[in-house]
User: Fold these one by one.
Assistant:
Number 1:
Amino acid sequence: MVLNPERDDLCLGIIGAGTMGRGIAQIAATAGITVLLYDSNPRSSAAAFEFIRAMLERAVAKGRMSTSDVASALARIHCINELAGMKSCHIVIEAILEDIAAKHALFSTLEPIVSPETILATNTSSLSVTAIAAACKHPERVAGMHFFNPVPLMKLVEIIEGIRTSPDVSATLAALGRRLGREPVQLQDTPGFLVNQVGRGFTVEATHIVAEGVADFATIDRIMRDAGGFRMG
């Protein structure tokens, strides 16, 4: 059965409560989605929740959200202390460290916990989705869903298909991305995916410009940030 990511009772699991995990949790909760947030260090989950609270309260101060909307969003985020709590999730996104062994260990542990229909996504920015999915008995349910930092501000999300990824899985993740207010781009599994490959060209050319004495790094950074739309320079 194909999952409808627009369903009112959608439950999204997020593993890893660092910068990326908390950002994904924030945009999901504000989009009306129930979020289960897990980190191997419970203090990290608690800290992520408080960070999200602070970000949403800033949005209220700027007139972008109401206090009732913030309360509703925060009520949708549930910090859990055991991976077993992910069993009710329709989709799980991992956002842990970029280490293939760690991701293999996580996915092999997670797969028997969740439903056979649960989609498993990785937020990896550099590792092969196909290689990550190899840890699973059903690699067809695994795909990449790569958000960019800072997640609440960056609208693009890369949806990456591994060799065995089901087309229904990538289509569902793209639809989830749209529900989250992102612009999904669907890609094949290739080193660096799309954005990182393109970004390397900017970095190399910027280095050449500095070496030739045309401009300094600060000037290039300002131009790329203010005129080029690169929020982090």
Number 2:
Amino acid sequence: MTTTARALAAPRRTALGRLVEDPPGFAAHLPGEPRLRRAADDFSDLFGLAEVDRLLTDRALRRPAFRVIRDGAQVPDASCLHGGLLYPDVADPRKISGLLAQGATLVFQGLQELNGPLAEFGRRLGHDLGRPVNVNAYVTPAGSQGFGDHYDTQDSFIVQIHGSKRWTLKDPALVQPLSHETGRPLPEDDGSGRTLTLESGDCLWLPRGWVHSARSTDTASVHLTISLYEWTGHWAWTRIAARAPGLPGRFPLSTDFFRDRAAAEKDMAALRTELMEWLATADDSALVDLVRAAGAPEFPSPVRHPAGQVLSPEPDEDTEYTVNAHAVLNAETRGDRLVLTLGARGLTLPAAMTPLLADLLTRDRFRPCDLPPAPGTTALLTRLLKEGVITRSHC
């Protein structure tokens, strides 16, 4: 990869900068302990009470996009769903209003798929940190608690949107738990937990494994939990094991594996030997390609605007475009080709386009007439527009 190509995918860290004080340092070494940033930003552009009502009343919200939690457990479907609609799993705003009045917590799940501002913020934050993100929102009435002590298997940002919430943090029940390591018994409460109250605009970094619980104060609370996909060495190995051609271990285990320990140990010794030999000769570059191919589709691909592209007037030299630089997850030069990774999609361009594309991706907006003259500019813009790397500013 050339230096120029690498720069095409360099993160700007504008989203991360709204959450933490030192974005480059934070991204380089994700902290292993909670960190609180007071008055990090005004996050009202991302979510709020009006959006809560809109989701419930305007969208015919369906499972699993929401849950209602009371006393640490999900309420029965009959208590929060419509009974007579075409889809039986649609949220009933009247029932949910009653549950909120009784102290239940409303949870919106996967808001990066449902809410425009959070979708855009999630794409930018995922690009900043090199990991896809998931966004949930928790709406809790005054003086109420959704969940008791528990831990999560994903690192998260807790962003207080409305009201305030008192959090209790305790040492990890399990250090850096993996995704399947849920539900471990929690240590007995010795009263050593740290308590803090998040006010509107505060942001708490909560690493995975830390035991926590939260209760709203004398005001209702709305907060976002922005979780990072846990891409660990363990995750990479599971992808290698599932996808690598020629990976050993294809031989059948002994028919006495569960009855004869000696036979079982012989099988495991043979497997271990094969794996060690395979790993000793495995090509690191090929493994990188394999793991990237498994992970890239987890990132959202650039948003396309079919109506705006097809039905709008033909663009001209004065048409203004918005640049979605965060859409470019990776860029590599391979011979005379420039290969871009756009989430689940790829885009191959002539390598000669690299300088022009590098110039474009440093801009927020541009008009073709503002660009330096270069052969192939029109073709490049047409392709980038089709893929969603640039969009007409009015779309």
Number 3:
Amino acid sequence: MDSLINILEKDELIIYTLRKLYKEYGYKKYRMSKFEEYDLYVSNKDFLISQNIITFTDIDGKLMALKPDVTLSIIKNTKDNKNEVTKLYYNENVYRASNASHSFKEIMQVGVECIGEIDSNCICENILLAAKSLSLIKEDYILDISNLGIIEKIIDSFNVTTNLRKSILKAIGEKNKEALYEIDIDDKLREYIKTIISTYGPLYETINKLKDEEFYPLIKEEIDLMTAISDNLMKNGMDKRVRIDFSVINNMNYYNGIAFKGFINGVPGGVLSGGQYDKLMDKMGKKSGAIGFAVYLDMLDRI
């Protein structure tokens, strides 16, 4: 085995170690075809990293697409069962514009998906696997986690229009407190959001800060989940490089609850991204919950 590992290329070794990790946690390999019907992607374009899709016409005249994403195919083809959890991992080629070259490339992507009854244990495991995945790639990493439920509950406690909500989320994502003064919202909401933008740092330190805030009773359930995640990471010795950062805002038309993003020193931009996507499941006619993440191997060429 050691001799085999010695002849693997860097990206092959990363794939091998990640697959081994996911198997150890009971995840089963998911295999999919190279293409899907174009309608699957065009109806969920905002969910995709790149909206540029390679298409072709099948022999029966149907418009097809080389897959730019794995998650949508997994949702489409996985049994919808709220009473159990399907745990899958994949390493699949996707076809999209590369962040590095800005041209279409065949990109190997590795990730995990949990679909079904998503409880706190499943969420904690997913975050732990994300941290372990980053650590296997390089020891110098950071995993930022957020809870979109906290942001939603705070905003929903005020009378805010859809357009104002978008402006608030944009300010949070950009960590731009000054932009909040250009938005016509209640002064108390503005102060709450300023606190959220300023809240960043180690897990327990940040959680304890939020517990002291006036709006804590509103978000206690979400804070309890963040505490459970932190406890699980600490129990496994993986808490030191994980931070809470509410600027991690995935598209809230598709995502809910926990969201996270992973970074490797020396690589610009995130190399790992994930979260809960119950809203996407609902949009695709599924009643189950879901959480997962992907590792973008094309971003790792610089390490």
